[in-house]
Specification:
Elements (H helix, E strand, L loop, with lengths): L5 H7 L11 H5 L8 E2 L16 E6 L3 H16 L3 E2 L8 E6 L4 H13 L1 H6 L4 E6 L5 H10 L5 E3 L7 H10 L4 E3 L7 E2 L11 E5 L1 E2 L10 H4 L4 E2 L2 H13 L4 E5 L16 H8 L6 E5 L8 H7 L8 E3 L7 H6 L6 H14 L4 E8 L6 H14 L3 E6 L17 H24 L5 E9 L6 E5 L5 E5 L8 E9 L3 E8 L3 H9 L1
Parallel strand pairs: 1-8, 2-3, 2-4, 4-5, 5-6, 6-7, 9-12, 12-13, 14-15, 15-16, 19-21
Antiparallel strand pairs: 10-11, 17-18, 17-20, 18-19, 20-21
Helix pairs in contact: 10-11, 14-15
The structure holds 5'-deoxyadenosine (5AD) and iron/sulfur cluster (SF4).
Iron/sulfur cluster binds next to helix 3 and helix 8.
Length: about 500
């Protein structure tokens, strides 16, 4: 149904009722009592066929948590009869699942929303929605109300299960529909999901974050730490294994805190110890916080099997003073000690990390500590960022006198160093044989296949399309900085072929 003049109504809305401004003291007092596990998710009857003959498009920004939320949104759309499209012109609903972690992530979304204004004018029935972390910010919602009045629907990270009801309101009401629960979040089980492919699957093990690093907006946009029940996680992984998935990535903002909010004595190490018994070739996880990485977890990871020898372990800064200002709750020495423990237990472990440069007040000497830590640990790769102030976080009001050029120069020097180390680490793989999960054809050359090692390195090699989805052995012939080139040495069916020959 077309909207007559939606803009007047929108600008009158008071959105302040949806938001409680970030309050560190209050947020830190988060209790565990009021997390509800909701198991009766259903699509309302009147919405079950609403999308018949219609198309949806979900565009995702940010981390894997967001990408997996988009799979849930897609699942809900398909349960309402919608089909997926990549074409904006064909879509009846376009949803932006947004990221708030840095300003440039937000700028991109505003750019896209602006660009789509003409499409909305041409096609007034189009529903344009904003979901994800940006929706949790009052200033974003106000900006949309003021300057992007062609948006029909805004909902937050705690409201995904409400999509059918919100969509109904957006389709049949004239007002902008805003639903952003600033509460700390429940756990909604059994939502439908459309997974990206049949090989690799993401599984949430927990939601939210209670760490409150002073630069980070996630504890405010994603609510408090809350773990899914172990039996729910195990059942989901079992089912994915049964369906033939080859690789599971367990997701949480801080997976090492898994279980701390449950009333049972069961942590991330226990969960991994249970999951490793499931017949699925690979299990990995994202993201770890060094503070909660305990000895039992290392002991379980050292059992290997389907637990891969790759750990993403963000350190953010190599200087203890800066770490203190970031409220990371560990020192440089403690981080290095943890790394040494992990390397001792798993000598061929691949470590990757996240690093922030230009945190307020960071001196050249403090930055040098970050460089020296990178050198000392020898990460295989790193995501590196210039600090971006986020309104409402404690660091946003810290004095920041570092000029922009200095921050950019630090990032460049850090990237140069990391690239050199990445190259060296990859060079060490030359002539080695690695197990590769074949994921698909290379984009540039259909004769070339690509896949990933247990340590998540991308390998390109010549091979037949029929190998897609299989585990094969590949010899690394040409290591490069970010990828590896190789050649197949063993096909997956060799035992069966031998059996046939012998029989
Ligand atoms: N500015 C820059 N980088 C940030 N990160 C989180 N918040 C900020 C910020 N305000 C980085 C951290 C984190 C990764 C996901 O993003 O390195 O680990
Ligand atoms: Fe993911 Fe954090 Fe970005 Fe939200 S703000 S999408 S949780 S990285």
């Amino acid at each position: 149904m077309a909207k007559e003049n939606p803009t007047d109504l929108k600008s009158e809305q008071d959105v302040s009722k949806y938001f409680i401004p970030p309050d560190l003291k209050k947020a830190k007092k988060r209790g565990k009592e009021d997390v509800k596990v909701i198991r009766d998710f259903d699509i309302p009857e009147d919405m079950q066929k609403i999308g018949k003959g219609k198309y949806y498009l979900v565009r995702t920004y940010g981390c894997q948590m967001n990408a997996h939320d988009s799979e849930t949104m897609a699942g809900i759309f398909e349960a309402m009869g919608y089909q997926e499209t990549e074409e904006e012109n064909q879509a009846d609903v376009i949803l932006f699942n947004t990221c708030a972690i840095r300003e440039n992530a937000e700028d991109k979304v505003f750019g896209e929303l602006g660009r789509l204004k003409h499409l909305k004018l041409e096609k007034p029935d189009l529903i344009l929605g904003v979901a994800g972390c940006m929706s949790q910010e009052e200033k974003v919602v106000n900006k949309i109300l003021k300057s992007y009045q062609h948006v029909d629907l805004i909902f937050g990270t705690h409201n995904i299960h409400r999509l059918p009801d919100l969509l109904r309101d957006a389709l049949f009401n004239k007002e902008l529909v805003v639903e952003v629960w600033s509460k700390e979040g429940d756990i909604i089980e059994q939502m439908p999901k459309v997974r990206e492919n049949g090989l690799k699957a993401w599984v949430n093990i927990m939601y939210g974050c209670d760490k409150f690093c002073t630069y980070c907006i996630v504890p405010y946009t994603r609510g408090k730490e809350r773990s899914r029940r172990p039996e729910d996680v195990i059942a989901e992984v079992r089912e994915l294994a049964r369906q033939g998935y080859k690789e599971i990535t367990l997701l949480g903002q801080n997976v090492n805190a898994y279980g701390k909010d449950l009333e049972i004595d069961y942590g991330f190490g226990h969960l991994l110890d249970d999951l490793r018994k499931i017949d699925v070739p690979r299990i990995r996880f994202m993201t770890s916080h060094p503070r909660d990485f305990d000895d039992y977890l290392i002991e379980v990871l050292a059992k290997r099997g389907n637990l891969v020898e790759h750990i993403h372990l963000p350190f953010q800064s190599g200087n203890t003073e800066v770490l203190k200002k970031m409220a990371r709750k560990y020192s440089r020495e403690q981080y290095l000690e943890l790394v040494n423990k992990i390397k001792k237990a798993i000598p061929d472990v691949v470590l990757t990390t996240d690093i922030i440069v230009g945190f307020p007040g960071e001196t050249e000497e403090q930055f040098q500590d970050t460089l020296s830590l990178v050198e000392e640990v020898g990460f295989d790769s790193a995501y590196t960022f210039i600090y971006s102030p986020r309104a409402g976080t404690p660091a946003a009001i810290m004095e920041d006198s570092i000029p922009e050029e200095v921050k950019k120069d630090r990032l460049q020097r850090l990237n140069d160093l990391q690239n050199r180390i990445s190259r060296e680490r990859n060079e060490a793989l030359k002539d080695q044989i690695v197990e590769v999960l074949v994921e698909g054809e290379s984009k540039n050359d259909p004769e070339v296949l690509s896949g990933r090692t247990r340590t998540n390195k991308l390998v390109n090699f010549k091979g037949d399309k029929s190998l897609i989805g299989q585990m094969i052995d590949v010899r690394i012939t040409e290591p490069q900085t970010w990828t590896l080139k190789g050649e197949i040495v063993a096909m997956p069916l060799k035992e069966e072929i031998l059996d046939v020959a012998n029989g």
